[in-house]
Amino acid sequence: MTAPPAPKPTPETAPYWEGARAGVLRIQHCSACDRHFFYPRSFCRYCASSSVRWVDVSGRARLVSYIINQRPLPGFESLSPVIALVELVEGPRLMTNIVDVTPTPENLLLDMDLQVAFEERGDVVVPVFRPEELAE
Prior knowledge:
The protein has about 140 residues and is mainly beta. It has one helix at about 15-20; strands at about 25-30, 35, 50-55, 60-70, 80-90, 95-100, 115-120, 125-130. It has a five-stranded antiparallel β-sheet, with helices on one face. It has a three-stranded antiparallel β-sheet with strand order 2-1-3.
């Protein structure tokens, strides 16, 4: 079995990955318009201000959409088959995996409360989400 490909941090995304390694979900916040945003960039996606900083967020989210992957690919056998779009309570949406739940529609209710968890994948720690009632 081959190892799943791991994300490669860049200088722009390094604080995100450093936070994940420390067990903290970290995203950017704009001081000009007071909004959180994701995907990392050097300016605010809403107002284009360069007054952005990295902040630790709650890690709480809700399930917006998902797909259950029925066809595992080489190198991905150990990954959750649930690929999801979650919305953080702070606002931004992230693509992620849902873990610690049987991958059936009955167990994956839209708007269900989720909590961040972290998984090692190669040299990188990746944020994933689990149902909130299973969170530690």
